[in-house]
UniProtKB/TrEMBL annotation:
Domain N-acetyltransferase: 15-186
Enzyme class, spelled out: transferase
Coiled-coil parts of chain: none
Lineage: Bacteria, Bacillati, Actinomycetota, Actinomycetes, Streptosporangiales
InterPro entries: Acyl_CoA_acyltransferase, GNAT_dom
Pfam families attached to this UniProt entry: Acetyltransf_1
EC number: 2.3.1.-
SUPFAM superfamilies to which the protein is assigned, alphabetical: Acyl-CoA N-acyltransferases (Nat)
GO molecular function: acyltransferase activity
Protein name per its UniProtKB record: GNAT family N-acetyltransferase
Keyword terms: Acyltransferase, Transferase
Length: 191
């Protein structure tokens, strides 16, 4: 359960994205263990897999950088609380989503732990992508993602986090059409 003094809004400055690599130092190894315990709500699993599957998949692919969404606000444990998970993918999957994939990285497998949803963490994590991308994939200028057209909360969160509809649609699975959204690294946060 969230433990801020004002549970309505999480301070975006207290939301960080921490890259996770196999063999990390003890603090990051602890974050790896923590994200493995985070699961989307049952009704959300059609939209995002759980880290217990998507983290090992990312570990096995040198083009993917898994990351923890970490909250460092008041009452957070030392090193912060893992409240979400995602993967940046600089591999070939981006080729079919962009006409100019050379500077594009995909955001995949992204979710916030259900108890933390609706507090602004997802939006803040989108804004924090700039720092992670600049550090881990400095060649990338745009972050792309696909989101199911029926996943209205996610579309709203992504828009709040600076993603814009590219107008492309992608049919990539059994759950219907996906919107392709893009965010330019370093773009202004929406008001
Ligand atoms: C999508 C997701 C990452 C958003 O994270 P979040 O922390 O809940 O989102 P935020 O609290 O930052 O909300 C951002 C905006 O989305 C809106 N929103 C969030 N959850 C919502 C919900 N369930 N219903 C309606 N709107 C919602 C907020 O009101 C806010 O809008 P505003 O800026 O206009 O006020 C999260 O809901 C999630 O993990 N969902 C399950 C997995 C999933 O769908 N992943 C995306 C796969 S593409």
């Amino acid at each position: 359960m969230i433990a801020t003094t004002d549970p309505g809004v999480v301070d975006p400055r207290e939301v960080h994205l921490v890259a996770l690599y196999p063999g990390d130092d003890p603090a990051r190894a602890q974050l790896r263990r923590a994200v493995l315990r985070l699961r989307p709500a049952p009704g959300q699993r059609q939209f995002s897999g759980a880290a217990e599957q998507t983290l090992p998949q990312a570990d096995a692919d040198p083009d993917r950088i898994p990351f923890a969404v970490v909250w460092t606000g008041q009452n957070a444990p030392p090193g912060g609380a893992a409240v979400g998970f995602g993967v940046l993918d600089g591999g070939s999957a981006r080729m079919e989503l962009s006409d100019d994939p050379a500077q594009v990285v995909l955001l995949r497998a992204f979710y916030i732990e259900p108890h933390w949803q609706g507090y602004g963490v997802g939006r803040a994590a989108c804004l924090a992508l700039d720092t992670l991308v600049s550090e881990a994939l400095p060649w990338a200028r745009h972050v792309l993602l696909t989101v199911n057209e029926r996943n209205e909360p996610a579309i709203r969160a992504y828009r709040a986090g600076g993603f814009r509809d590219t107008g492309r649609r992608h049919l990539g699975g059994p759950h219907g059409y996906q919107l392709v959204l893009a965010r330019t690294v370093g773009s202004e946060a929406p008001a």
